[in-house]
Amino acid sequence: MEEKMEKAILVLVKLPKQRADEFQNYQAELEGLAEAAGAIVTMVMIQARARIQGATYLGKGKLEELKGVIEETEPDLVIFDRELSPVQMRNLEKMLEIKIIDRTGLILDIFSQRARSHEGKLQVELASLEYRLPRLTGKGKEMSRLGAGIGTRGAGEQKLELDRRYIRSRIVDIKKQIEKIRKMRSLHRKQRERSGIKTVSLVGYTNAGKSSLFNALCNRGHTSGQEQVEADSRLFQTLDTTTRRIRWLDGQEILITDTVGFIQDMPANLANAFKATFEETLEADLILHIADIADIDYMEKMETVAGVLQELGADKTDTLLVFNKIDLLPDKPAGNGNIYVSALTGEGLDKLMDRISQYLNAGEQEG
Ligand SMILES: Nc1nc2c(ncn2[C@@H]2O[C@H](COP(=O)(O)OP(=O)(O)OP(=O)(O)O)[C@@H](O)[C@H]2O)c(=O)[nH]1
Ligand SMILES: [Mg+2]
Questions:
Q1: Which of 5, 218, 267, 319 is geometrically suited to a Cys-Cys bond with 223, CB 3.0 to 4.6 A?
Q2: Residue that finishes a domain, picked among 101, 134, 150
Q3: What is the pLDDT of residues 190-223, one digit of tens each?
Q4: Which domain holds residue 85?
């Protein structure tokens, strides 16, 4: 928080396949990501194009316009809406002479700022290094050119020594460490399985209200004297999974887990780095998929989440869809069997807890 806010220009390319309303949400999400990283968006520049320009991302005219705006308004950086190829990145930096961050770099930066646990930090560092490796222009040059702030975090302390050889050996090292942690996790999981305690994992798009619901359920579940997890409107507030044991009114104990949120087009490196975290989710007895029903884009976001779950192989785990933030809807949806709750007001939580119990106990009888 001590770091100063950086002024950023956002640059987006609208392709023909993006509908106007889709594009609006896409833009809002990028603004949300920029803010989450600690930037103040001073200007948004949009170019509608038939396709992305291979070498420079933008067309010639738009580039010149952008250069003019940069000279006039002197921002700290320019943020691009998609992942740039190493070549595009280099060309843009050369032409615009300013710090350039693409969407992947932005998400990596947010993750670097938020990771708290040892494992989370390793995962983010791994993803950052893998992203950076093909983008290095020469020994140590890249980092010194970037200076400080957004885009420079998360790749370890020896920033100036970030040459390719160092990065490669560090990647190998981190992978080993993560593998060790993964084994520990699976050991713990087996112990839990033997103890017979059921596990419930909360997943969903970033900002859906997972952490808020996690807290609300823990409060109802007689957890004594434990801290709340942080909930905030910033995207990717949660990066570390938290598991708590809670006791239902009927005396049953369950383990409940809060997890990192999903986003569309999650950078591949990050998704890979976080695989171990999601393994935990895969092996839960029940997944609660939390969706923000007050978000105009909630259907697309639900599809994104379902897609990621499928990729991870979690689509075979029992999943209960939970619509959160019902308090924000003027008209309550009619009783259609869906679960509607508000983590904020507590509405619907009793019903949700009943449904969770039903599920877990049904599983018991079958198995
Ligand atoms: N009105 C309303 N706001 C809610 C509700 N649940 C959560 N929020 C708000 O939505 C924002 C996001 O909540 P979080 O619980 O941090 O969401 P999350 O899914 O954990 O988000 P990430 O950890 O960033 O992926 C916060 O500002 C919450 O106060 C709800 O039921 N009603
Ligand atoms: Mg959260």
A1: 218
A2: 101
A3: 888 888 889 999 999 999 999 999 999 998 876 6
A4: 1-101
CB 264 within 8 A of CB 300: yes
- pLDDT tens sequence across 151-189: 766 554 444 445 788 889 999 999 999 999 888 888 888
| Residue positions counted in the chain | 367
CB-based contact 349:220 (threshold 8 Å): yes
Which residues in the chain land under pLDDT 70?
Answer: 1-3, 137-148, 152-162, 222-225, 249, 363-367
Q: Which of 131, 160, 190 is the last residue of a domain?
A: 190
Does residue 143 share a domain with residue 21? no
Longest dimension (CA), the chain: 69
Pocket of ligand 1 (CB under 6 A): 204, 206-212, 231-233, 235-238, 261, 324-325, 327-328, 342-344
How many angstroms separate the alpha carbon of residue 212 from the centre of ligand 1? 6
Structurally, how many domains does the chain consist of?
Answer: 3
Residues 124 and 226 in one domain: no
Q: Which ligand is nearest to the CA of 342?
A: 1
Of 45, 56, 127, 48, the residue nearest 79 (C-alpha): 45
Query: Is the residue at 68 inside a domain?
Result: yes
Alpha-carbon distance 110 to 137, whole Å? 24
Tens digit of pLDDT for each residue in 33-61? Answer: 999 999 999 999 999 999 998 899 999 99
For 283, counting Cβ atoms within 10 Å of its Cβ (0-12 exposed, 13-18 middle, 19+ buried), the class is middle
- In a shared domain, residues 235 and 329: yes
- Tell which residue, 230, 89, 221, has the closest CA to residue 151: 89
The answer to whether residues 135 and 283 belong to one domain is: no
